[in-house]
Predict the structure.
Amino acid sequence: MLKNYLKIALRTVRHNKASAFINVLGLAVGLACCLLIVLFVQHERSYDHFHTRADRIYRVEMDVKGTQQTARWNVVPVPAAPLLKHQFPDIEQIVRIGYEDEPLIQQGENRFYEDFYYETEPAFFDIFDFTLLQGNASALARPNTIVLSESIARKYFGDDDPMGATLTKVDKWSQETTEYEVVGVLADPPVNSHFHPHLLASLATGLEQDAQNWRRIAHTYALLRDGVAPEALAAQFTPVTDLVEETYNAPVTAVLMPLLRIHLHSIGQNDLEPQGDIRYVWIFSAIAFLILLIACINYMNLATARAAQRAKEVGVRKVVGAQRRQLVAQFIGEAVLQTTGALLLGLGLTQLLLPAFNHLMEQPLALDLGNTWVLTALAATALLVGIASGSYPAFLLSGYRPASVLKGSVQTRHRSGLRKGLVVFQFSVSVALIACTVVIQQQLHYVQHTRLGFDQEQAVIISARNALGAKAEAFKQALLQQPSVRHVSLASGVPGHHYMISFSDPEDIEAYAGTSEGSIVFDHPLVDYDYLSALGLELVAGRTFSPDFPGDAENAYLINETAARALGWADPVGKTFTTNAGTRTVIGVVRDYHVRSMKEEIRPLRIQVHTNQVYHVAVKLSTTDLPAALAGLKATWEQFVPVHPFEYSFLDEDFAAMYRTEQRLGQLFNAFAGLAIFVACLGLFGLAAFTAEQRTKEIGIRKVLGASIVGLAALLSKDLLKLVLVAIVLAGPVAYLAMSTWLDGFAYRIEISWPIFLIAGLLALLIALLTVSYQAVKAALADPIRSLRYE
């Protein structure tokens, strides 16, 4: 029986080569897209699952009510952890992880700024399942000890045994050096970990002076006992959060964030490393499903379109005794056979596209065909897709009555309506994806080309990391001697990089007329006198800092327009702030400029003259020979700070990097929109060919009677093109809703206008017209004598 079904299926494929090719190619493209996205989704959802007690590990976070809104902090004060462990027995273990941004690590001639440097305590290995290859976790209880990952150990020590050796860390803030003894080697952490501890220093090293400092913060993870309800436990943390409120003068609520949700659902600030976004997982999953659905629809459309051709076959089989379940099995078997061929082709496409996909997504994805589970899943996919795409045609064909079929009275009108609906659905999805792509590209163009309030052109940022110390001013003057350098500024923070923050209570602000009852948070860069000129910032009121006014360094602020509005000041110049160091007067107002990406609103800002903390040097160049100018900057740096590596970036590139996720999304939408419309057009091509085949005699008669080629092409194309126009109308609201939701993630965004949907619709219509016209013109050019001899 099975052999007979297979022979019939192969014979059917051989007799309908064009239809089979369209089905297999469409399904192969759909399955390849689906496989790529499934690999990505599987990887994103696998984060931190390698920890055996992952379901009981939670990160302690805080919701802090600020000036405009409540902010989620992914950190808590260092003294909070021992209090929580002591007061709440439901916490089995707790650990603190401190983070230092790229400290300089030295060992002999090896000097590197390290991205993955953390400070922790022995409980780290009681909670997490990172594997110690050498050493003992308890050694981290001693000050000045450090554990290295395998790759870091090789980086500094090569093939030598690092145990007992010494590494030196240069403090980013004070430039003081601290020596650490290597007491352990850690297996390189898995890629799918939400943080990667390559250097784990002892938290005890600097904890003595900060053990009761409620302004020193750390990431804090708790291992809860079995059966503990995290929400109920967090609600009991008020004795600790009250102490936090006293420190920050703001209402605080404790939150326990499940470890397994951190990578995709983290919403707070200060993550140890950049995390993923569950929205993109759902978006890509939906795209994969829709493209595969479009491919399945192609099969259903072509199968039902050719139903009448196979009706007599069904009638004859039923007359000679075939049962309906046998016919259903035969037709579904044909679908599964084509799906299996498509899956094999799709696997080849997946392997071919995987390197490019990994490069785009910055992920190490791989398709493991040696894994039994993977092979089982692929076989199940072929079976399910075959059943899904072949079930309707199978039940339709097997349901024909033999008498009606053999008399030639099969009614197909309602099936034609279904086919039209499916074509509309296919192109609605395609047009919606094209419209989404256009919106994403327009938003990216907007955020990358809108004036940010400062001059990005040829602005180089040198990462000084406070390494210059007392040499900072001399370094600045040396740079100004170079002909390619126009301006230089020394600062603690520049746009696109870390800005310090400060707080002021309403009672410390003169004539405060704002609406906040809690502390007002300010971005607070410490700068020199040339900060505004180096960055091209615009002054809208008052004056800027000047050496001609010696008091500026001690008692002056510049604020931005947002700060003036937040404080309710119509005329800010002359207003004062009371600080711990005395009274400071506002001498000028700077036009608002973006410190962070345009996803975030501009915050209140106050600028202060102070050059003892130089973490960045902003250099404004004026040259056509950038390599020579950069070589000059490097030579000067090495003259002043030979121990520290020279690192720089361009300010415009720093801001462009903030939208890397959105750029990837735009590129993926480009690719998937193209693939979706390609698969949809395959189906349209097949239907157009079938329509032309059905109307062969009609075309011959019309041509004999004088019909033109253009008229015949229009006759054959118009019905299908009408369906595409309907799809364009239906796709607009769906794309608008989806992109409005996406744009809500940007504080500064474009407005979605109707030309976007017009562009998407015209593009889809043009592609559909080219697809249908080929078959229509081909049929119209056919010899009418052959058309009239048809059958």
Notes: The mean pLDDT is 83. The chain has 25 helices and 26 strands. The longest strand covers residues 177-186. The radius of gyration is 34 Å.
